[in-house]
């Protein structure tokens, strides 16, 4: 029998070997079962995580504030997915008769070598954990980090994404975050300086403003309480400045400030109280000299 005939005979024997096909079928069934079980574990795990946070919000024993629930839910779901996928891949490799222990040992040595050169990555991850569990800021908060200011779009273990007012998204490594100003933790304050003419009756103006401010909380739900008229703030060049402060819900002070300025302007106009505007006085030296030269001047 020639070599070619021997080769084809061996190939035919392999394809007609029932034990080989049984082993392949058994392996495929195991892999399919592993994938199905992995998908069910991820789905059930995510459902359990969300139910836990929904239940926590209904009890007074919750350890995590509602502000960061969305951040923690997303983070825990990602961790669950990564862990299940890793275990599934290792199990599938074992089914394929690949030495997983040797791979893990080699990966450990490589990881140790890479770890010495990836200290910044480790720092980013550790800082990300502290940011989330210390509740420094959460998704949706308006923050200032260094020179960047905007709404937190996403918090990861390695990076944080901030969306500015004009739409740009800034991606910052967590390890670089050393100082954070969070504008969303407490109520905001709108400060308004209102100028009136020196000729105006101050007492009457204050009465008009106080009557207006008393009814604003019922009109605007963003106001935490009735705005307060502090009184005369300063003497301007051509105006008397009154200051009003209004406590609002977090990050609503710009919106309320614009509305209050409109309300105040309408109220002052309705009561005939003048808001000063720039005036220009023309001085002519020639006319003054001509008047001096007139008889009897």
UniProtKB/TrEMBL annotation:
GO molecular function, one term: mechanosensitive monoatomic ion channel activity
Domain Mechanosensitive ion channel MscS positions: 121-184
Protein name: Mechanosensitive ion channel protein MscS
Organism: Mesobacillus campisalis
Membrane topology annotation: Multi-pass membrane protein
Residues passing through the membrane, by range: 20-42, 75-96, 102-122
Keywords: Cell membrane, Membrane, Transmembrane, Transmembrane helix
Highest classification ranks of the organism: Bacteria, Bacillati, Bacillota, Bacilli, Bacillales
Domain Mechanosensitive ion channel transmembrane helices 2/3 span(s) in chain numbering: 78-119
Entry-linked Pfam families: MS_channel_1st (PF21088), MS_channel_2nd (PF00924), MS_channel_3rd (PF21082)
Function: May play a role in resistance to osmotic downshock.
Cross-referenced PANTHER family: MODERATE CONDUCTANCE MECHANOSENSITIVE CHANNEL YBIO
